[in-house]
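Example for tutorial group B:
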């Protein structure tokens, strides 16, 4: 599941896996208007209960997926910030 904070500055992806507990996941993300994915610099470790959370600061629409070895997650799309821009 992917969500955006109330002010639109931070996105968060949470997930659950049943067979990758304790492993490290690599996030890959793509911003709207781009044609390629970029590998995230910070990895995510799956907790012993199978959950993980990844956050990033951005106000752009973002598509995100995670990898471990050759296993790839589904892609999550988080909409761009909506509402008035704060200055």
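The residue assignment follows.
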């Amino acid at each position: 599941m992917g969500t955006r904070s109330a002010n639109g500055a931070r996105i968060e992806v949470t997930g659950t896996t049943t067979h990758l507990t304790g492993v490290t996941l690599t996030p890959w993300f793509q911003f709207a208007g781009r044609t390629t994915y970029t590998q995230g610099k910070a990895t995510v470790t799956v907790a012993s209960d199978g959950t993980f959370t990844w956050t990033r600061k951005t106000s752009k629409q973002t598509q995100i997926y995670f990898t471990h070895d050759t296993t790839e997650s589904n892609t999550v799309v988080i909409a761009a910030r909506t509402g008035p821009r704060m200055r």
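The chain has a mean pLDDT of 86. Compare this with the pattern of hydrophobic and polar residues in the output above.
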